[in-house]
Design a protein that fits this description.
Blueprint (H helix, E strand, L loop, with lengths): L2 H4 L3 H18 L8 E4 L7 E6 L5 E7 L2 E7 L25 H4 L14 E6 L6 E2 L12 H5 L6 H11 L6 H8 L6 H7 L5 H11 L1
Antiparallel strand pairs: 1-2, 2-3, 3-4, 4-5, 5-6
Helix pairs in contact: 2-8, 5-6
Amino acid sequence: MSVLETLPEPKILKELMKILASLNIVCCPEEWLRYHSFIPESDDNVSIASIDNGSGDHLFIIFAPQGTIIKGFDHESEVSPYAQDEHEVWPGIYEEVPTSLLSLLEDEAIAKEDVTFCFWYENNDSMWQQGKVEIPDGAEDGSDFLIGTIFRTAEDFVEFAEGYFELTLPIEIVAKIYEGEAITREMIKAINPDSDVEKVFQELEGID
């Protein structure tokens, strides 16, 4: 199964990214050290989810009224612009992206030219789309790796948090959050006893 086939539809993906961002807020008080983040809808009804592993790799998911676009960058990929003498975006990554979605990547913070893969989903699509990109044999565009850090289950997040945040999380609490339960003071303390509960609540409100 290709990575495109494993991606949930945008509405489900958006809720999942909110859950991951919320758990990161609870686990890690330092915003710059968080792996998953979510910026809620702005005046133009656009919201942005992001993944940053702190090692030069990142993923942006932009949810907009006209559809959703994913831009990923694996800094070690053979199709990275920095691996080319011309320092250009690999052929095929952006050519077929609808203009209305491609324009969402123009924000300087998104670093449009730092890209190794791009997927999109217009409102009338029934599955995720990708341009005609030819990747050399033995090369990787980083999509399996980065999309794989969108953890679908509580078990996967607990395993990740133990390695990344060095926290042992109660699976039953994390499972409730994955199921959509509102995060309570007790949940926050169970996940991260050292957290500033009021600050966490303040940040969590900013996601909804």
